[in-house]
Amino acid sequence: MDKQKIQEKQKEILDFIGTFCSEKLDDEYFELAERLLAKLGRKRSVPFLSGYAEVWAAAIIHALGTINFLFDKASKPYASVDDINDFFKTNKSTTGGKSKQIRDLLKLRTWDDEFSTKRMRNGNPFRNLVMVNGYIVPLNILPDE
């Protein structure tokens, strides 16, 4: 793989993401997207080398939005799937498909430690639970050592 080509494509995608985040989202989403893009760029088979940069930028925002409830109107910031597709001039099914590809490739789930917003991490109902001898228990009932 040509590292130069990967870096050029990453920069192109990141420029689109940066514009969207500054207009519609916030710095935290930009930082998460930047980290996600870098992780994709380290894969053996870099997925974003083929296809349009706009589609990959939209898919990255969509993937992050899916695991962080961006599409919930009660969420701050909020953006709809249509907002993303209208901004990047992409097709809903293409963006959704690439987003699923990203989530599957990186095993992204809701309350993901690496790619969740602070609000999501703080609201994680599982953050104070641990597995002890096959049982799920709250951390606060364990003895201090």
Textual characterization of the structure:
It is a single chain. The protein is globular. The protein is built from six helices and two strands; from the N terminus they run ααααααββ. Helices cover 54% and strands 6% of the residues. It has a two-stranded antiparallel sheet with strand order 1-2. It has 145 residues and is mainly alpha-helical.
Features of the shown structure:
145 residues; two-stranded antiparallel ribbon
Amino-to-carboxy terminus distance? 50 Å
What order do the helices and strands follow? Answer: HHHHHHEE
Query: How many strand elements?
Result: 2
Shape: globular
Structural class: mainly alpha
What's the gist of this structure?
The chain has 145 residues and is mostly helical. It is 54% helix and 6% strand.
Helices and strands in order, then pairings?
Layout: H1 3-24, H2 27-41, H3 53-67, H4 81-88, H5 92-105, H6 118-122, E1 129-132, E2 135-138
Antiparallel strand pairs: 1-2
Helix pairs in contact: 1-2, 1-3, 3-4, 3-5
